[in-house]
Specification:
Choline transporter-like protein, transmembrane, mainly alpha, 59% helix
Length: 719
């Protein structure tokens, strides 16, 4: 991209871009060099600084250019000219000749060539474009061909004038309503945190009632019309109603099954939305992330358009079929604009991916910081710093993968547009199917990329490793992902609709009292489009935060279980969700009986008598006394009995690979334990003598030893 920019500036004529040039290769506002074989070239046009088109409304839609002779003139016509006499009078008054160079102003009304060499009538009122010295018509209705869908609407200049006057008259209201949509979006992001639980269940109830009501109405209409069948049309309608009713019933049943499966996973979506609200409280700069991204995109698009325009000025002057001059590049360099288009897609995706990585890094920092008071002063800037220092390659690779999918889809869309009405039905269907498949693939890869950036922010791994890890996590939590992406996205979509409707309603109420114009449809459309854009920018950040939180939550629950040394990092709301899920799983696994309320020992053949003996033995151990099976102990236990009974709740189990490890572990933990904690040591029979020796040595060195219960491996019947 840098090479293309440098080449276009070095070989292109910046003066041709800024000052403009006529159809003969002359640059306006300076002396020019003669082009071989071209008449009217090499003229001194120092005093003619503006480009004027003889027929500015003759637009070539295929090549996107004005098919008209261009001349350099001294001034643009500031009023409409309807006859050759008006053009002659304008030239004599302003010194600006609007006909071809070979005609003198005195010949405009007498020379028969004036019909071809002078502008097409009427000559529209025009004004110079700032910085680019082109005369452009003030009334832009002749450019309506660029928007073929609106040609019939804007062809009436009176309608266009009323629309434009409506926009100009209500510009203060439009700005105020745009600001209102911005405020509403920020308020909604705060409110979602507090009403997420109620909002989800309200939507669920509405969907259920709507599906049931629609199905019931269809069956009611079917039963009612079945009573009176008089014509063939009535029979056809009855058959259609039956099909609709069956389809609605199937849809309702499927919807109920999906909600039945996902009812518990909706709680996770609610918890994630609640935590996302807390994230925005601790990281308020996240709210402004869309503005920074949009600003960077605008800067890049401006640069891209400037380079593209410079590319259009490169090349050598070549006569075309009509005898005018065109500037063309020869050789492979003429295809550089193709790579320039690829760069537009890639770098735009790269900028958006940088935003995703920045948000992911900041949210990951928030999630995995136990004490929120210890968060960095600006987690957003810290995330940007990590991105620039370590993860630009990851972002570049992810955005390039999206580009590889987007370019073929855009090519197929271009082919489909060019062949519209010419291809047969089979080719049209295949093209649309390919476009649809590529679109789905692009969306899936975009979602996977976003989660890969989150995995990179957590583990600092490369793109491929992060994508693999993220994919595994998403597959393991497929139902949770489905619940979040359906319920969560639907909530956010309704939020966008709410903001647009609220802004539109306020606009109708305000514009209704404005009497200075007759049409206020266009101002209202502008306001609603801006409101949707603002709501989408804000709520898409919210959606991104929820997705990052979910992946952090999934990784947290995968590698941590809440035990000492493996504590969760999650928020209290998510912790409550985990605890409720565990309780539900335990209650479902215990069968609901009275005895199932307590955890049983892991054994298969022990009888209730053995459990009772074990309980009695454990309760009979005096504080500070010797443990079970110790050489000098006064209590014994049958070898076939279990080591531990169900009444022992607080215990420490030690598992070591060698007696040396056991000695070091016991010397470390025994002095720190409370005296009412039970300690169980299990070892192989061959190692038991060494275990006894070690324990006796430790107990002999302690004035108030912790009771240690000892058992050999074969004392358990369970494998």
């Amino acid at each position: 991209m840098g090479f293309i920019c440098g080449f276009s500036i070095a070989t292109g004529a910046a003066a041709r871009l800024l000052s403009g040039y006529d159809s003969y290769g002359n640059i306006c506002g300076q002396k020019n060099v003669k082009v071989e074989g071209i008449v009217n070239s090499g003229l001194d046009l120092t005093h003619r600084k503006y480009v004027f088109f003889l027929d500015p409304c003759n637009i070539d839609l295929v090549h996107q250019k004005i098919k008209s002779i261009a001349l350099c003139v001294s001034a643009c016509p500031r009023k409409e000219l309807k006859t050759l006499a008006d053009i002659q009078n304008f030239a004599e008054t302003n010194g600006s000749t609007l006909c071809s160079y070979e005609l003198q102003p005195s010949e405009y009304t007498t020379d028969p060539r004036a019909a071809k060499l002078c502008p097409k009538f009427p000559v529209p009122e025009s004004a110079p474009i700032p910085f680019f010295h082109r005369c452009a018509p003030v009334n832009i209705s002749c450019y309506a061909k660029f928007a073929e869908a609106l040609i019939t609407f804007v062809s009436d200049s009176s309608v266009l004038h009323r629309l434009i006057s409506g926009v100009m008259t209500s510009k203060e209201i439009i700005m105020g309503l745009c600001l209102l949509s911005l405020v509403l979006s920020m308020i909604l992001m705060i409110i979602i945190r507090y009403i997420s639980r109620v909002l989800v269940w309200i939507l669920t109830i509405l969907v259920i009632l709507g599906s049931l009501g629609g199905t019931g109405v269809l069956w009611w209409l079917y039963a009612k019309q079945r009573m009176s069948l008089e014509t063939q049309v009535a029979k056809d309608n009855l058959q259609a109603l039956l099909i609709y009713a069956i389809a609605a019933t199937v849809f309702t049943v499927i919807l109920f099954l999906i909600m039945l499966i996902m009812r518990k996973r909706v709680a996770l979506t609610i918890a994630l939305f609640h935590v996302a609200g807390k994230v925005f409280i601790h990281l308020p700069l996240l709210v402004f992330q869309p503005f920074w991204t949009f600003f960077v995109l605008i800067l890049f698009w401006t640069y891209w358009i400037a380079v593209l325009l410079f590319l259009g000025t490169t090349g050598s002057p070549v006569p075309n079929e009509e005898g005018f001059v065109e500037f063309r590049m020869a050789g492979p360099l003429k295809y550089m604009w193709w790579y320039h288009v690829v760069g537009l897609i890639w770098i735009s995706e790269f900028i958006l991916a940088c935003q995703q990585m920045t948000v992911a890094g900041a949210v990951v920092t928030y999630y995995f910081t136990r004490e929120k008071r210890n968060l960095p002063f600006t987690p957003i800037l810290a995330s940007v710093n990590r991105l620039v220092c370590y993860h630009l390659g990851t972002v570049a690779k992810g955005s390039f993968i999206i580009t590889l999918v987007k370019i073929p889809r855009m090519i197929l869309m271009y082919i489909h547009t060019q062949l519209k009405g010419k291809e047969n039905a089979c080719a049209r269907c295949m093209l649309k199917a390919c476009i649809c498949c590529l679109w789905c693939l692009e969306k899936c890869l975009t979602y996977l990329n976003q989660n890969a950036y989150t995995a990179t922010a957590i583990n600092s791994t490369n793109f491929c490793t992060s994508a693999k890890d993220a994919f595994v996590i998403l597959v393991e939590n497929a139902l949770r992902v489905a619940a979040i992406n359906t319920v969560g996205d639907f909530m956010l979509f309704l939020g966008k609709v709410l903001i647009v409707c609220s802004t539109g309603l306020a606009g109708i109420m305000l514009l209704n009292y404005q009497r200075d114009y007759t049409i206020w449809v266009l101002p209202l459309i502008i306001v609603c489009l801006f409101a949707f854009l603002v709501a989408h920018c804000f709520l898409s950040i919210y959606e991104m935060v929820v997705d990052v939180l979910f992946l952090c939550f999934a990784i947290d629950t995968k590698y941590n279980d809440g035990s000492p040394g493996r504590e969760f990092y999650m928020d209290k709301v998510l912790m409550e969700f985990v605890e409720n899920s565990r309780k539900s799983m335990k209650e479902a696994g215990r069968g609901g009986g009275a005895e199932g309320r307590e955890l049983k020992p892991m054994e298969t053949t022990a009888t209730s008598k053995m459990e009772t003996d074990a309980v009695v033995i454990n309760q009979s151990i005096p504080s500070g006394g010797k443990g079970l099976d110790s050489p000098s102990g006064t209590t014994s236990v049958h070898r076939q009995g279990p080591c531990c009974g169900p009444k022992v709740f607080c215990s420490v189990s030690v598992f070591c690979s060698s007696t040396e490890d056991l000695l070091g572990t016991l010397e470390e933990i025994l002095p720190k334990l409370q005296k009412d904690v039970s300690v169980w040591i299990m070892a192989k029979d061959s190692a038991f003598p060494d275990v006894h020796t070690l324990l006796d040595k430790i107990e002999a060195a302690s004035e108030d030893p912790v009771p240690v219960n000892r058992c050999s491996a074969n004392s358990l019947k369970s494998p």
